[in-house]
Design brief:
With 235 residues, this protein is an all-alpha fold. Helix content is 56%, strand content 3%. It has 12 helices and 2 strands; from the N terminus they run ββαααααααααααα. The chain has a two-stranded antiparallel sheet.
């Protein structure tokens, strides 16, 4: 039995080799063998289309997050951003300010400080003693114990006192450690944040995602060429 010729693989359409159009196609291929050996523009476009369909060429949901955060930052009025410079406490009390500062700390690879401070604030909102123990254990294992995944910079005495109180935690167990990290951010990270380009752009009402357009310098005008005849001898 003679194998059929597959004309359109995408559509699964085939035909027998004894058909007249097969003979025509076969003779055409013999007459122009050099054209079949080189991929045409249409084949290149098809290959490119298949390549772009691969998952690695699609951003996915993770590309939408920076866009949303940028829109949130751009929605902050300049007068509100100015208030963040009044005090560190004012900055952290505003949701947009806290998000902007957290984003800045990530650029400095020190976001564990603000994450620890936020965890302590949540810990102090616990309404029952039953909630304190699991939260205290999580905070200690994440931020305080030796070689913790997000270990914060604490002096030996503060870390020792906090470790001793983990067994029977109370609402003020992390106050000393939280105040230490707070002062560290206030005296070190906060001044740099106020000098950073993202914050200065917010204060000036600029869009940080768009570069500032510079006007091209004007070196001459049309009037400068009045009365000047072209010299064609240079050609």
């Amino acid at each position: 039995m003679e194998n059929p010729l597959l004309l359109f693989p995408q559509l699964n359409i085939s035909a027998s080799k004894d058909k007249s159009y097969y003979k025509v196609m076969k003779s055409t291929i013999k007459e122009e063998p050099h054209k079949a050996s080189k991929p045409g523009a249409k084949q290149k476009r098809n290959r490119l289309s298949l390549l772009l369909q691969k998952p690695e060429f699609h951003g996915g949901d993770h590309l939408a997050k920076p866009e949303n955060s940028t829109k949130a930052a751009n929605s902050v009025p300049p007068e509100e951003a100015v208030k963040w410079g009044e005090s560190f406490d004012k900055l952290l009390s505003e949701k947009a300010g806290l998000e902007a500062f957290t984003k800045f700390l990530k650029t400095e690879f020190s976001e564990e400080n603000i994450e620890f401070w936020i965890a302590c604030e949540d810990y102090k909102k616990s309404k029952t003693a039953h909630e304190l123990l699991p939260k205290a254990k999580t905070i200690y294992e994440t931020f305080i114990q030796k070689d913790a995944p997000k270990e914060v910079n604490l002096d030996f005495q503060t870390k020792e006192v906090t470790s001793q109180n983990i067994g029977q935690p109370i609402i003020t167990t992390f106050d000393r450690a939280q105040n230490t990290v707070y002062r560290l951010m206030e005296q070190d990270s906060y001044p740099r944040f106020l000098r950073s380009d993202p914050y200065l752009n917010l204060v000036k009402g600029r869009n940080p995602s768009r570069p500032t357009l510079r006007r091209r310098s004007r070196s001459f005008t049309v009037n400068d060429f009045k009365g000047v005849r072209p010299d064609f001898t240079v050609w």
